Amino acid sequence: MFDQIYARRLKADMETWVANGWVAPEGATRILASLAAGDGRSRLPMALAGIGVVCMALALAAFIAANWDAIPRALKLAGIALAVLLSHGAAAWAADAGRRGIADLATAFATLVFVGGLALVGQIFHLPQDWAGGALLVCLGAIAAAWLAGSRAALVVAAVAAIQWQTMRSELGAETLVEGLIGFALLAAVLAHPLVHPARLSRWAALSLLYVTFGRWIVEGADRLDDAALAAALLGFAALSAALVVFGALLERRPRDGRASVFAGPGLLLLARSAQELAMAVLLLAVVVALVGISEIGEASLGTALAAPAVALLLVAAVLGSGMLLAAGAREARHRLTVGAVAACLAAVLVSLAAPQAMIPAAALALGATVAVSMAGILAHVSAWTLGGHIALTVVVLWLLSVTIGTLLGQAVFFLVAGLVLIAMALVTARSLRRAAARRQEDVS
């Protein structure tokens, strides 16, 4: 969806650039032709083939399960191993022939066969009593396939298995040092893969594992999932998201020196952009959850949440990153508004946790934060921020309407104040944009 929005925006801008003489008509024609050649239709065959590969792997697992008693144990093990080896051989042949898509699908098929074989054969060795251990084995095998073959699909399987392992392993408060180190190693291996082999799906899978792993670390010290643990997790997710947004913006400002390395290549920048999109969505979700669940959180929740070292550290990192971003891009309105949106979201969550009964300040901050995120998305040309801000704003307004129903005077006062605040924000934004445009014009001249 966002690719289509970008394509429409580029086509509209191209007409302006050609009319102003900034782009030659021949160059514009080539750019638009390249854009049309790389649209979503070219990915349709691979998407269909990917679904077909999943169906074939399920068919093989179902066939073995249906004939479980009829097939000797040695033949079952040999058949599964042979299917995995042949699939990897086909992937190697396709990669050598330059067919990276086919190689990725073949590696994905081998990974799925490995998962199915492990689930079937594991019944002999009492795997149902240790599903977390089985998920860890699947994750290790998928990570090996992802790195050895450069497979994005296998990386997604590894991320899903790692998430399952994080949610199914030892009870809260019973984590050992070894489990913590294993979780960190899995996260590092999964997060590093999109840097070398960029792909949108693998980036989002890796970032999802980051949030799940972080959430597990936050609540690990709690004996149970009570209000204090939920408050710490909520503020922790908000702080992590804020840090990802501001440091991602800082990374985009870093000059490119053309060096051929993992940290200078496109993989890191693409991962940072995906992290910004997901982080802003999580930040908006934290604002909405804090506002809607404000009456369910205890008075001491903020102090308990700040007592978690990781939460306090991430809040400090978000503040420092915001200061660095403002210092680096003080003249750019999009960076100032990004920092303002992040600060408003954090303030909304903090106020909701500090004063659960103070609905009006929390609601005002939530409204301001959602509007600020939408405006930041417009200035930064990040459609996901704009869409997320609109959705969060709609949820907040509908919730406020439901909780104030029956008090028409209260509704009138609240929405009058909200309208005045929004108009004031619009005037300030318009003035800032005019000043930014004037400064850019001075720089050009």
From TrEMBL:
* Alphabetically ordered keywords of this record: Membrane, Transmembrane, Transmembrane helix
Q: Does the keyword Cell inner membrane apply?
A: no
Fetch the InterPro entries from UniProt.
DUF2157
Could you confirm whether the keyword GTP-binding appears in this record?
Answer: no
Q: Which residues form the DUF2157 domain?
A: 16-154
Parts of the chain that traverse the membrane: 47-68, 74-95, 102-125, 131-164, 176-196, 228-251, 278-294, 306-330, 337-354, 360-380, 387-406, 412-430
Q: Which Pfam families has this protein been placed in? A: DUF2157 (PF09925)
Q: What is the name attached to this protein's record?
A: DUF2157 domain-containing protein
Q: Which organism is it from?
A: Polymorphum gilvum (strain LMG 25793 / CGMCC 1.9160 / SL003B-26A1)
